[in-house]
């Protein structure tokens, strides 16, 4: 691999590889005014994920660096207890006070797996509901920072939100009382008929008989724990009795990892592939399907970035991830032989029906390899000095039983012009990991990948700095470099066809 034009992150420090991300640090948020109610966060050990209540005392001029506001805490006093504590806090640690919970939101159920803020010792702490206790009506909430599990009443919890681009995400549930009264009948009708799709079993079964003949391309769902809300591509290979079908999955494999997985599914868990979308821009609040781990998973857009990528929240697993436009589609429900678009939160109009594409018979194709030719992949190196690094490439061809040819995205051949092509072992390639939305800052000892010299290098956060920067330690060379938040991603391992997140390093 002597022809590679890349470097270990600790070999050289070229300035073009260490440019800082664009910054808006000199723009003072509009909500910061003297007397304004705010919530205050901190990077102090033991208080990550906590939001203190307070108010703004003074604000800096926009040309001042750093942009530190003086705040007064509502529930913290000076050491002598004589008066509320005042201190200077950077604007990045401030957000407006979350409005009181609306009556509509008070009626919403809090489910296991949901992100919440829990009011504990006069502070709002970010956590995740792990159990809804039926006996006493309390909720068990897990706090990642302290690794504690504590029980709370419903009135001590609020739905977790982030302040992103001057707005709350997910959006606040706003309900005007007069509108609720005037549209009460319509809302009730919507709730009963459209919020939960009403399935007519006889109609659904009749449609299945008509459409799902042998060879038909379909999507199959599962009620198995951990797979609720996911649809996998398959084809019908046999009809069994009056309401069941044997299907062969396109992307799932038997235990031997070679033969396509075959299973029996009933007519309620089979549908045709939804009609393709036009090239649309997804907006916050849209219900979408994201292709991940060989299936389409239902999620909700909680953040929209300028580069076209979006942040997705998956309620079933309580995960947040970032995806590009490719691999996303607007969510549709298959109800009584028709496609229906879901309603956005608070919407009371009838769901729009989408015509079904009747031509759903499978195109003949044979998939022999796990990665198809042209698939974007990441490639590791076994060369000394490049361990624990991954480089973007695409798969060109398979050679023999365990070799393949890849072409790198950023690395160049010896002439410095053409993309570098190289033969590697199959165990050196993996798919590109899904982008994960890091709503909270990275923490000390988080295992991360750092983008440097055209590759992703495995390291561990050793220190959290100001302005969303971090010192990252690389164990192979025992050196430390500074990176901006935008140059890091949470480390994930590709194991047995699945991504496993490694949030914390096992060594200090």
TrEMBL record:
Residues 30-102, 108-165, 210-278, 280-336, 369-437, 440-496 form the Agenet domain. InterPro entries: Agenet-like_dom (IPR008395), Agenet_dom_plant (IPR014002). Residues 1-30 are annotated as: Disordered. Transmembrane segments: none annotated. It holds the Pfam family Agenet. Residues 1-28 have a biased composition (Polar residues). This is Agenet domain-containing protein. It comes from Brassica rapa subsp. trilocularis. The lineage of its organism: Eukaryota, Viridiplantae, Streptophyta, Embryophyta, Tracheophyta.
């Amino acid at each position: 691999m002597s022809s590679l034009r890349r470097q270990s992150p600790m070999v050289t420090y070229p300035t073009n590889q260490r440019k800082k991300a664009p910054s808006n640090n000199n723009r003072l948020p509009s909500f910061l005014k003297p007397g304004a109610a705010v919530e205050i966060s901190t990077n102090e050990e033991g208080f990550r994920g906590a939001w203190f209540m307070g108010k703004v005392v003074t604000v800096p001029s926009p040309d001042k660096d750093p942009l530190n506001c003086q705040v007064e805490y509502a529930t913290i006093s000076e050491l002598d207890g004589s008066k509320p504590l005042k201190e200077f806090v950077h604007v990045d640690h401030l957000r407006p006070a979350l409005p009181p919970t609306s009556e509509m939101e008070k009626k919403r159920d809090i489910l296991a797996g949901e992100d919440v803020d829990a009011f504990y010792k006069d502070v709002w702490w970010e956590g995740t509901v792990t159990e809804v206790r039926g006996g006493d009506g309390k909720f068990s909430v897990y706090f990642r920072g302290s690794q504690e599990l504590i029980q709370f009443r419903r009135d001590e919890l609020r739905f977790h939100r982030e302040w992103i681009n001057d707005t709350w995400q997910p959006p606040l549930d706003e309900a005007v009382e007069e509108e609720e009264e005037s549209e009460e009948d319509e809302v009730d009708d919507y709730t009963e008929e459209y919020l939960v799709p009403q399935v007519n079993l006889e109609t659904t079964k009749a449609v299945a008989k008509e459409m799902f003949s042998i060879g038909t391309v379909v999507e199959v769902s599962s009620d198995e724990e951990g797979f609720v809300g996911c649809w996998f591509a398959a084809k019908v290979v046999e009809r069994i009795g009056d309401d069941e079908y044997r299907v062969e999955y396109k992307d799932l494999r038997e235990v031997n990892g070679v033969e396509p997985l075959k299973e029996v599914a009933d007519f309620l868990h089979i549908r045709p592939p939804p009609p393709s979308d036009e090239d649309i821009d997804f907006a916050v609040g849209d219900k979408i399907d994201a292709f991940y781990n060989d299936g389409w998973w239902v999620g909700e857009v909680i953040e929209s970035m300028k580069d076209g990528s979006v942040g997705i929240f998956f309620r079933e697993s309580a995960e947040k991830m970032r995806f590009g436009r490719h691999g996303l589609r607007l969510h549709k429900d298959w109800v009584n032989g028709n496609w229906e678009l879901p309603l956005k939160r608070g919407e009371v109009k009838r769901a729009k029906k989408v015509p079904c594409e009747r031509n759903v018979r499978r195109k003949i194709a044979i998939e022999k390899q796990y990665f198809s030719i042209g698939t974007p992949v990441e490639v590791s190196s076994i060369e000394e000095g490049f361990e624990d690094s991954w480089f973007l490439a695409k798969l060109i061809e398979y050679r023999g039983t365990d070799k393949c040819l890849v072409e790198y995205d950023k690395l160049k051949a010896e002439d410095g012009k053409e993309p570098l092509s190289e033969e590697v072992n199959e165990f050196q390639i993996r798919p590109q990991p899904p982008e994960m939305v890091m709503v909270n800052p990275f923490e000390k000892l988080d295992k991360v990948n750092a983008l440097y010299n055209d590759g992703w290098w495995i390291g561990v956060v050793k220190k959290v700095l100001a302005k969303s920067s971090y010192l990252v330690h690389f164990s192979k060379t025992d050196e430390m470099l500074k990176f901006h938040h935008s140059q890091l991603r949470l480390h994930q391992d590709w194991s047995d066809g699945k991504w496993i997140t490694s949030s914390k390093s096992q060594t200090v």
